[in-house]
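Risk register update: the risk that structure generation would not scale has been downgraded. Supporting records follow, first protein first.
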Amino acid sequence: MFKKIAADALGLSDIGKIIEPQDYDKTDADDYVMHEDNEKIYFLIKTKADEYCFTNLALIHVDGARATSSKRTLKRYPYSQYKISDVFLETAGKVDLDVEIKFKLGGEQFDIDVHKDQIEKLKDLYKALLRIAETTYENDILINQAEQSLDKAVTILHHTRPEHVNIETQYKELTEFGFRWLTSVRSQYHIKDFGDVFEKYMNN
């Protein structure tokens, strides 16, 4: 009940409104942020039906199929599992009331309308999502290159193995080395927390 009254007080419509940090506690999404794991809200867009909560770890979508219904479906999209891509910002024409930010998270397409008076703030989100998309794209290339390099190294070592070396011993050593190598590469390039990106673009 409190959340509904608070939402009404925010003056929401079908066009999204960017919520200020001091009003995050008036939203449903705030209840599902994993504060225990140092998850933090950096950007939140709310309409009568939906909430789009961007944290350092994930997009939390409180999905209301109809604005007239109190039912909500909570959907969570961790950036480490759902790659951001195809980020676009559509500005408003003279008669338009809204601007639109579009992007994909994995296979899900998001088109979010926001009141055009908040275009400057939406630009910050656009920059952050674009940087995350570019970073994950480049890191995927580096991870793939690391895997290819390891495969080549294993092939070369296999063909140059001295006769006196036990094949089982060599296989074990190569397997352990490969696991350590790939774990190290994944730890470096498979990013889960993009708090630094949001901090950079949200605090300008």
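Supporting record for the second protein:
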Amino acid sequence: MLDDTLPVTLQYQLRGKLLDKIEKRFWSPGSQIPSERELCDEYGVSRITVREVLKELVQEGYLVRKQGKGTFVSLPKFEHELTSSYSLSQELEKEGLDSGFQLLGFKRCSATSLLQRVFGISAQDSVYEITRLRFIGDELFAWERAFVPCSLMEGAGEEQLKKDGLYLTIFRRSGLMAEEAEVEAEAVNCPGEIAELLQIKKNTAVLRLNRLTTAKNRCIEYCESYIRSEKYKYKYKQTLRKKAFYDDAYSDQTEGK
């Protein structure tokens, strides 16, 4: 309950209480907070007071309203510093956040002249095109389209990609472990068809990344991503290190030798 004898308004007190729960992660990022009525009962204030405080916190980015669902704690803006790896999932796990992806497409196609130069392959060689939507919690985060030479992923299918992710699939199929990611980033207006998938308005400002990932001085992936700029800050190029998600696969591959 709030104290109406204090020299500050109930609205100010309630704001402080709710912010404290958000900042101390009593309500974790992405979680739903109690309803307006529940907050009224908990703090002994009117619904008007609760509604005004929630409105302020939504406007300031601490909370987000989802129509028909309720009010949720906003996910933090994810700052990918690449200090140790280019595993998005691992970086998010460090922040205590869940991540995942939805596979939109996985197909074999001819290599364009650009991809031939990037991968050092001929016009007769094929590449896999992998299109995915990325999520942080249940919020859409990014759309990406990656290309990988078919020779590095022969025998791989959608189920393995869904289970292992792209880099581990490449490693299991070719033995090549991602070592370095060189990225170009620029702010652009999101194309209409991608904006629709990301559930944002056409021409919304987003961050476009073009990434070249190499292993043993060979390019193993070319990827184009469109990332919701309010959710992400990209910093710099990084040499990758062998991480835990490779360890089991490496052991599996070498046990029989």
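Residues 10-23 form the longest helix (14 residues). On this basis the risk owner (M.S.) recommends closing the item.
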